[in-house]
Amino acid sequence: MHSLQAPPAVVMIRPHAFASNPETRDDNAFQTLANRSAAATSTQARVEHDQAVALLRDAGVKVHVFDDHGDLNTPDSVFPNNWFSTHPGGHVAIYPMFVPSRRRERRADVIEMLKQEYRVQDVIDYSGLEQDKLALEGTGAMVLDHVGRVAYTVKSNRADPVLLERFCTHFNYEPIVFEAHDAEGRDVYHTNVLMGIGGEYALICLDMITDPERRATVKARLEESGRTVIDLTHEQIAEFAGNAIELSGRDGLVLALSSRALAALTADQIAIIEASATPLPLSVPTIETAGGSVRCMIAGIHLSRR
């Protein structure tokens, strides 16, 4: 039995032309440049991806892997959680992306696989709104509480407020929107770098939420849903400790996060997680140079199998 919050199956994209994307560098403060050649960086990213897939499968998570053939100039394709999401009841959303290279990541074969192997009632495609310069980058821009039906969203150019309202109306979520800054005062580009929601706990850096009232609201809503709030520090966020996703494995729940993220957590924080889920560290240091970590690599499938 899997929890509503923790999908038993995921989609991952195997990178063949991975790079730190110059188009997204302006507003993604997590990006760094890898200190090796482009070819070596891409090869190493593929190795890390394949090892992560193997560990997830070992834990009993169903992983659907698609190869990115590298000919479309999609340096961020390893992060598919931004261009589509799936929802209980058979609903799929396809999203408009902020920069042109990320728009090329969308692919019909992934959606076709979902339709063939899972019960899909409808696909709502918002991607045409890119013509109007609107973006809503999936479960990067929104961290979804599937149980409490809340879409936690940081204000950014990757999360248009009108589009967010439209998504929430279609998919029956309540938007909770807030401004968030990192320790240097820069805007946070994606909500999923500062928070992740499990079934019994939520990882979040409350200190990044700039407005004290909103901060209190977010904390209260997470606690009302019965979750223990694990309040992360700015330093832990910089190690990608918020970029984690709970999944349903063979022997119960696992929390997929990077090895670096797990190393940044305290013993007390890990104990709260371990009360309901087993941490599953994945080593992805090269992929993290692109400004995303394990959560970004995983698109959860919240659909019933056919």
From TrEMBL:
Q: What is this protein called?
A: Amidinotransferase
Q: Which domain of life is it from?
A: Bacteria
- Highest classification ranks of the organism: Bacteria, Pseudomonadati, Pseudomonadota, Alphaproteobacteria, Rhodobacterales
The cross-references to Pfam families, in alphabetical order and at most eight, read: DDAH_eukar
The record's InterPro entries line, in alphabetical order, gives:
Amdntrnsf_FN0238 (IPR014541)
